[in-house]
Amino acid sequence: MIRKLTVNGVLVVTVLPLLVATVVGLIALWPDGNSLRPDSFGPPTRLVNGTVAVDRAVPCQGRPSGAASNCRVATVRLTQGPEKGTTVDLQLYEGPGQPRLHKGDPVVLGRADERGQVDYYFSDFQRRSPLLWLGLLFAAAVIAIGRIRGLAALIGLGLSFVLLVSFVLPAILEGENALLVAIVASSAIMFLLMYLAHGVNPKTTAALLGTLVSLALTGLLAVVFVGVARVANVNTEEASFLQNAASQVSLKGILLGGIIIGSLGVLNDVTVTQASAVWALREADPAAGARDLYHRAMAIGRDHIASTVDTLVLAYAGAALPLLLLFTLASRPIADVVTGSLVAEEIVRTLVGGIGLVASVPVTTGLAALVATRVQTGPKPRRLPPWVSGGTHSTD
After folding, report:
1. N or C: which end of the chain has fewer CB within 10 A?
2. Which of 283, 104, 126 is closest to 203 using CA atoms?
3. Which residues, including other chains, have CB under 8 Å from residue 323's CB and lie 6 or more apart?
4. Residue 356 parent element (H or E)
5. What is the pTM for the complete model shown?
6. What tens digit of pLDDT does each residue of 169-221 get?
7. What single-letter DSSP state applies at residue 42?
8. 202 touches 278 (CB < 8 A)
9. Domain boundary residue among 93, 126, 159?
């Protein structure tokens, strides 16, 4: 018991300063909203919902150069806004990238009111219902399989989303250091997610410490290689718009912060898995020492690394498939594609995150092995008489 209290005391002394630093960082960097002016992006766009009542083909009038010769008119009944209950006609040109509306489609229209003249245009499809049902299905699956821990994980996920929306985005827009904001937010998210989902115990604390050490390494590598490779992309349309609308925001800082936050999910998965593996091995063999536990758990960790590294690369390839197809159509040499700004930025992001991921396995496994061998993970094995155990008896 004394040894157990000593280990828990060491863990508290180690984690408590990190928790205090996270809370202080949240307080110091929390946005006050004074620099976020409503007119920063011009007048707000009014969006209203509607449902397509009629869709018909018509001859095109005044079509733009290069547009298809066929046009369609969609009559939309407004279900929201000042003209609710009335209908408006939308002329849509058929062709690549143009929406194809059908009767009954729920849509979102933009409402432009200039000098008393009201015009409507197609903005997007309504997706609230299918996304809501998908979210409910996801929550039901998590709770059905994970039970109390699944529910706790969902609560932690919701709190993490609130933190991103209420702290990370406004703080960056107010000009705070994006990397520092991301580090503070990531630390807070890890405390919330891990302790809510897995409980306050030595195993969770070992996984948390492994995650924070790996995040620190990821941040250091990101600063070095984003600067050396000069991949803070400023030539995209989104970057230009952001710089014009919010010049106080650092694009390099956004990239660095994105690398940190993007590494959270996979790091959480790996570190918790490694800590759980160590604890399971310890319970199966209470006599095993820290070195033995480390080597056994690392065998699991190496398999995890092999599969997760593939996941990182394939996830980017899937997300960037349209871009890669365009490069292929343009007959760009592979060396030019890889070293170009668009792809190189994602390569740096993926490889830096991958190094942090790989490092998290031995770090977390080592911490978990040291902690697990110094706390009592279960009841001590009973000593059996020699005539029952065949001349031997179990040892602690």
Report:
1. N
2. 283
3. 342, 343
4. helix 341-372
5. 0.75
6. 888 888 888 889 999 999 999 998 888 888 888 899 999 999 999 999 998 99
7. B
8. no
9. 126
